[in-house]
User: What shape does this take?
Amino acid sequence: MRVNGVYYYRMKHKEWILTAVFALLMTACTERQHQFETEVMLPYTPVKSQGGTQLCWAYAMLSAIETEHICRGDSVELSVPYVAKMLEREPDAPPSGRAMAATALNLMAKYGAVPLHSMPATDYPVPEHAYLLGCEYTPLEFAHSVCAPGEWAALTTTDDGRPYYEEVELALPDNWEHNRFINLPADSLLALTERAVRQHRGICWEGDTSEWGYDWQQGVAVTSLWNGRTTDDHCMAIVGIAHDEEGARYFVMKNSWGTANRYEGLMYVSFDYFVRKTIAVYLPANLL
Assistant: This one.
């Protein structure tokens, strides 16, 4: 027992040292004062807070749709509370409210959408009509005017041997709808996403924010050290591209955790982080 006890202590001590060194290196990497120069910044609606909900997927997807319309010259701000209420009508939806950004598109196609002013919070009554610029719509009519079925494409990148350029189903707990995604090589997905931003299109990103290099307070996500796994944790809208003082490029992403970080709710996510930590990307289908 004494030998086992000593061995266990030594292993724990070694792991603690490695963890501490890892944390210090990662802290030095993320907390250094990056100097970003913006290359592209798309217009976007105000940063919001999802509070204690698990609705990042709805905030991010609706934000991408809003940016897409602003770039077209339209002005629209959509109600996440309405989408949340429609989720409650789905018998397979988990009580947690977790889902994928594709779920927001599916709910809009099935139940419609309304402007934010029609339902600004979940404790408001669900409206039967949507009003915008003096026009009256049903929720379905309104949804189809801002996001027609099939207007957005869902993309992913996998390295598990499944064929590229074909649809695959992601075996993830949040994919309880069994949504399918076009599987692309990682470099192709990165290039397509970058091109979409530079063409001033709306984009929604879904990926892993459990990486040590994801620092909300500093507003930066990098992967100089990588924990070796990718999980489906969070969604954000991509609203720009920037580079740092060393020339490394970053996507500027609009988060839904409020504005209490260095960049008032924005995150600078390195291209390297994007390649390693992406679960899915949603962008206008006519870009494919």
Remarks:
- The mean pLDDT is 89.
- The chain has seven helices and 13 strands.
